[in-house]
Specification:
- The structure is a single chain.
- The protein has one domain.
- The chain is built from 4 helices and no strands.
Length: 45
């Protein structure tokens, strides 16, 4: 995941722990990579 988003593994860990938030560009890259909508990514029905 870190390689795909061009960030280091520590950054991913900090996102998962809630210590940092991903940038819009990183979130957008996730949408594109996994073919999902923003609502699906954030669990919004």
């Amino acid at each position: 995941m870190a390689k795909i988003l061009h960030v280091n593994q520590t950054t991913i860990s900090q996102w998962l722990l809630g210590k940092k938030k991903p940038s819009f560009d990183n979130i957008y890259a996730l949408y594109e990579k996994f073919g999902i909508t923003p609502n699906e990514l954030f669990g919004i029905e």
